[in-house]
Amino acid sequence: MIGNIFSAFGKTLGWIFNILMLPLSIYALMQIMGWDWVKSGVAALILTAVPVIGSIGNLLLAFIGIYFVTMNWPHLF
Q1: Which of 23, 52, 53, 75 is the most buried (most CB within 10 A)?
Q2: Which distant-in-sequence residues (6+ apart) come within 8 Å of 22 by Cβ?
């Protein structure tokens, strides 16, 4: 019973992190691939659906997105 609770908590926490990293992944794909936000959003959602490789890729794209946001901060507005 306790294992099921911890499993549900871990899955929920992972889902929340994936949702919070999604905008950064979309922005990174927009900068790297030159796509608009719709294509980048679809690609990021497909990447999120892949179990292990998608999580690692989503994490890497989130860090790349953070880099691009900090580099282009004055040009975003």
Answers
A1: 23
A2: 44, 45, 48, 58
Instruction: Assess if residue 41 is contained within a domain.
Output: yes
Per-residue CA distances from 39 to 4, 5, 42, 51, 54 (Å): 37, 36, 5, 21, 17
Tell whether 62 is covered by a domain. yes
Tokens of 17: 């992190």
Domain span at residue 46 reads 18-72
pLDDT digits (tens, 9 = 90+) for 7-19: 888 888 888 887 8
| DSSP label at residue 73 | G
Q: Helix-strand-coil percent breakdown of the chain, rounded to 5? A: 90, 0, 10
pTM: 0.75
